[in-house]
Amino acid sequence: MSRRILSVAAALALALAADAADAQAKKPAPPPAKAAGPGQACIDCHEQTSPSIVSDWRLSRHSAMDVDCISCHGDGHRTKDDFAKAKLPTPDTCAQCHEAQVAQFKRGKHAWSWAAVKAMPTFHYQPVAIREGLKGCGGCHKLGLKSEQETKELRETSGGYGVASCDACHTRHLFSKAEARRPEACQTCHMGFDHPQWEMYSGSKHGVRNALKSQKAIPETSAAPTCQTCHMQEGNHEVRTAWGFLAVRLPMPEGDPQWTADRATILQGLGVLDPQGKPTGRLEVVKAADVARLTQEAFDAERTKMVKTCTQCHSQGFARKQLEQSDGLIRDADHLMAEAIRTVAGLYQDGVLAKPKEYAYPFPDLLTFHDAPTPVEQTLFVMFLEHRMRAFQGAFHANPDYANWYGWSEMRRDLVEIKAMAEDMRRVAKVKPGAPAKKPAPKK
Q1: Contact call for residues 399 and 380 (beta carbons, < 8 A)
Q2: Residue 363 exposed, middle or buried by CB count within 10 Å (0-12, 13-18, 19+)
Q3: Which of 332, 345, 355 is nearest to 411 (CA)?
Q4: What is the pLDDT of residue 8?
Q5: How far apart are CA 296 and CA 250, in angstroms?
Q6: Where is the signal peptide (predicted)?
Q7: Residue 328: predicted pLDDT
Q8: At 273, is the secondary structure helix, strand, or coil?
Q9: Which domains are delineated in the chain?
Q10: Residue 232: other Cβ atoms inside 10 A
């Protein structure tokens, strides 16, 4: 019996040894060692000074394709004292290999994010740390294309950070496509006060299913749309939407005079139309920054792409109906917004509230943001940029709570507050709507 056990054990040992030898034979041979390239000196130094940079680069596809430090940063930086000579990559640097993606990016809204934020009147009043120091608006809007002079100034102010664009999603120095395909890659910028898309998405059924799939609670093949599924169809780097950022567009709606009037009021509050309804110089800024669709054809092209995306999981009838209902919420939100704008504009026109001298037209400037000078104007700003944005964005991102309680409901409350404040101000000034305030009698 003991000899039999020993024989079986010996046979098993031989079989395991044969399997191990077979597995070793099938294991691919390690790649041959590469000759040290021109960037090897950079690698040797930065492995000591900033090892995680080198570690990420080694994990990237770039390292396997001989794309080294010099390929992107040039060879000007050679010592610890001349670090300023290291070039910071721009989209054009990436275009040497990724021409199609960079061309798409340059046509899209992200490429104009720096121009868009600079177009905001009071952006220039913010602390330098928030602007060029990239601790606030500039931290995300740095993504946009910049002139050579702006690039130089940004580098000096921000300590050398924030010049490139592609690395906002493909974080340096790994530059991972898998990372950029994850919805979390969008979270840093698309969250918070005026654009909480991350919060809306992650709490929606789409986001919940994506999280469950990531946790392997549902099968890997389950339908779970990400931000990129809807906004980067087939990997397109333009990242456009039908309504644009502020949900105002041209041409005016046909057959709906109320919405036409309301949208005109909002455009006047944005300074895009003058009191007579004619385009102003700001319209050219809106065109340049690509923050709105200004033709029916442009809107229809983006809407068609979205319907096609939705029908990967839903029927076309269902998809179109959901999008149309979200359009309808914009119409209803615009009616509340326009009434609030007209209320504040009426205070200017009747002399109850002093119109800031920097406002070109007798309308509150919705783009002054937190620099609005009085509580009633501050409430109007919050109504527009926080609550109206949440109402329509919540609808399109399939998040009922944002659309209703954080959006529509708050707009209703804002309007009540604005009208109550206006009434109090008129009572103090003893001016009824449409009646100019009495000028004080001259002193004797």
Answers
A1: no
A2: buried
A3: 332
A4: 44
A5: 7
A6: 1-20
A7: 97
A8: strand
A9: 51-79+88-180 (no CATH), 194-218+226-234 (no CATH), 246-429 (1.20.850.10)
A10: 21
